[in-house]
Amino acid sequence: MPGDGEYDRKVYDPAFVLAAVEHCLALNSRRLDLKGLFSNTKIVQYAIRALASACPFVRSKAYSILSRVFAKLEYHASKYAHNVKDPFPQSQEIATLLRCLKRAITAPEQRLPGIIAAFVSEGLGIAQRPNHRLYPLMNKFLLSRPCIDLSDVPMYYSLFNSGTPSYRTERMWILRILGSGDRSDLDLTLLSRRHVYGYLMALSSSPMSDDVTEPVLLKAFSCIANAPNAPTELGRRGFLHWLQRLALKAPGFEHTSLAIDMLFSLMNDEGAKVSHEPKK
Questions:
Q1: Which end of the chain has less neighbouring CB within 10 Å, N or C?
Q2: DSSP assignment letter at 3
Q3: Rounded distance, CA 123 to CA 143, Å?
Q4: 242 to each of 205, 216, 232, 248, 274, how far by Cα in Å?
Q5: What is the DSSP-derived secondary structure letter of residue 113?
């Protein structure tokens, strides 16, 4: 693992990347190849993830990119509305997903929860693959509502508690969404509303948790623990006691080090928070 300084030099500033992409789209708006944009690049997914950024400038550039892409999708839909030889037939499903997100936005440069951004970003990949197991479930979800509820975890109950033959794929997909991207206090509100903490801890302690599920669960909790008020919220849910039991598992448990690191990180964050509180 390279040092922090070396790693930082290899990562581009999102503000620079998004501004450059916005400029390129503005110069080539008429010649923009939608199929190539979605098939060969991750630009749109990157912009959607940026909607969860704490920086207003980054969010403004991301919204500008998505606005241009959505306008191109609308133009493509009208152009090929009565043409069976549509070169990019998946554009309808992509436009439906982005439209549901667009209708949920209620303020300029609104910051989205990281879970919502991750769901939409990963959903774009499913929208382009009709043979994906979650393709019909995703379409059913989007077509049954006018917009995505930004105060809820999309499709959480239906995927986590799935009883279909592909329940494992569905559950693992939503677990990976929970462990993808950054988390803020907006995400803690969503997770608390759906009682996600208890569900994840119960799954980890059940016989259904195996060597494949366990690291995904730990990654989800590790991602959640990065939120500013996560130590207080997770401590209230009994997470520290669960994490302590997990760290004391059998010596052969390969994720013990991750559990211990998370435990110390949360305890240090909580201790620092208490030490900075003014004395009464």
A1: C
A2: -
A3: 14
A4: 9, 16, 15, 10, 22
A5: P
As a whole number of angstroms, the distance between CA 251 and CA 111 comes to: 43
Residue by residue, DSSP assigns 141-177 as: HHHTSSS--TTS-TTHHHHHT--STTHHHHHHHHHHH
For 61, the token pair is 């550039």
How far is the CA of 79 from the CAs of 32, 91, 189, in angstroms?
A: 14, 12, 42
- Would you say how long the chain is, in residues? 280
- Rg of the chain over Cα atoms, rounded to whole angstroms, equals 21
* Mean of pLDDT values over 62-80: 91
CA 192 to chain centroid, in Å, comes to: 16
DSSP 8-state code for residue 181: S
Mean pLDDT of the chain: 84
Q: How many CB atoms lie within 10 A of CB 237?
A: 17
Backbone angles phi, psi at 117, to 5 degrees: -60, -40
Percent of the chain with pLDDT over 90: 44
Q: What is the mean pLDDT of residues 42-67?
A: 94
User: Tokens 């190849």 belong to which residue?
Assistant: 33
pTM here is: 0.86
DSSP state of 207: T
21: enclosing H helix or E strand: helix 14-27
Please list, in sequence order, all residues whose beta carbon lies within 8 angstroms of the beta carbon of residue 94, skipping any fewer than 6 positions away.
38, 73, 124, 127, 128
Instruction: Give residue-wise pLDDT tens across range 32-49.
Output: 888 888 888 889 999 999
Residues 6+ apart with CB under 8 A from 103: 146, 147, 148
Longest CA span, the chain: 72
CA atoms within 13 A of residue 146's CA, in its CB half-sphere = 3
